DNA sequence: ATTAGCACTCGTTAAAGGAGAGTGCTAACA
DNA sequence: TGTTAGCACTCTCCTTTAACGAGTGCTAAT
């Protein structure tokens, strides 16, 4: 267990390093306002903290920097819940301005978040659990081509172009759309493929001749793939961090950011609440010297998506956690409003 | 005017430098298969070429590198039209696979182009000149919110959520949509705002009470902004170029890439055909040590969009120009097919 | 006209030295 | 007994110096 003095000094060192990105020396600490010990005393404490694994040296006679264990301790025990900053009010504006659809809210939030923190923000879009089909439309452009449009109750619109098989007549198409709308209205998006294959398939067979091919076209266009919606903001912010001054790190960082599914998987595994993953706690190699902070947002009990910030391990944990907390609350609330209005 | 020998040596130097990114010395040149002069002779020629401004030295006793004037001459006079490579066939596949909508074709092409060249590709989407409104739909989600969907004859779909003013009833909304569809079907997208303000406005006023506000909502949602469609592929490719080994260049490059309108303006000014802009010929500061190669694609006489590749001045001009030429032809052709099928 | 030879230039790399920041340890102090 | 001053030591960073090599320009010979 750490003494009060050890706690104080550990905190000061980490705070200082987060600010300066430079190893912190005993002399510098002793000059701080809230410190009244001599450099020598502080050196003793620092040696202890190093023995315990909370601090490291970059070389034998350098100042100290926090170890990953140090950051872990800092995050778990030393964070002083910050007074909610004015920034949070900005979220309210962005999110509750009702004329946007939810997708845009998410995107804007990602941008905002990275602007406020100067880190990279990643938001995993709302999962489709609770969204339901509102309407399906097919509009023919030419006798051979058409565009299918799918609207959910959350205002999300998805569209695909496809070509109409020769065997299918306009009236067949119309019939099919009518049946689909009739049967699928209000069905949760996630259940669409199943429902489509069971009841609807046989029903359409009765009315539409040679329906198989058209049906497959449509199904392929919409219901097979469920691309993850990932919004990334402020990738360039990382370039400003001093730990990214060497080009190889930049390269591997950008390479990693292009693997969207990997990122998505990483974020999906998140449990509820705020979670901080520091350095090697991350499973992905390219961010083993980064920290990832994730928060979830909800609809009722159901987890809908994840908000995350990615930065160097030397991250402003206090600020970031406060912001993420606030944003996750705002989004949960916004989601709830949607829900109430739509059911 | 340059002698044959000067031409040969200039070409060899530039070819070599484009490959190696290293200053080229006389000895290295004399060893090439198609060169039969001694290093001393070559040195004389190189000195002449330098006097004429085609070559430069990085320091007083270094090998030569091409100057911008040198590249200019190279591009204008020394390019041997390359045999169309197999790569071009890939374009055909991507572009003529009819089930995609045009937007996706453009996007895929951008990716493909940067993959093939290892430079950054930028494509300015097809202008809306010739696209016409096919259908306008408004789907209400709740009594207060609705999503408006606009479909063009090219299969392009645009959608916006908006809230319905309290004063407006469902039947009013329906009336309005009917009028809009009736009056605006087949109208070119670019003329929509004008048409909307003149004939349609007065017409709606007759049928829908208190239409002003709703009308403005809708108009704001769709017709005021015409965001440029810009597709960028392979931004990370630039990181691999040796001229981007220093982080500040990377920073300013990425900063520049975020200013989409600036890029769009730069590309819009393009005249027909292939155009090469080398180094300081570019007006934008951040790419004063890059070359930009642009090509246009057409529908009939009308220029529809621009394809561009951005790389270091030390660029594989031969390859890039061939590819761009091919792609611009493919896209023009694809566009023509669309047109024929849709009118 | 071409080329061999040679002195010269400049960038690159390695080694060497000094300054500065910071440590660990010991001994003195309150 | 906990705290502090003092001091030798270590390591990085920066600068200087020297050697090396790639490449040039010029001159004289072919």
UniProtKB/TrEMBL annotation, chains A, B:
It holds the Pfam family HrcA. Coiled coil: none annotated. It comes from the Bacteria. GO terms for biological process: negative regulation of DNA-templated transcription. Keywords: Repressor, Stress response, Transcription, Transcription regulation. SUPFAM superfamilies: GAF domain-like, Winged helix' DNA-binding domain. The keyword Methyltransferase does not apply. GO terms for molecular function: DNA binding. The keyword ATP-binding does not apply. Residues 103-321 form the Heat-inducible transcription repressor HrcA C-terminal domain. Belongs to the HrcA family. This is Heat-inducible transcription repressor HrcA.
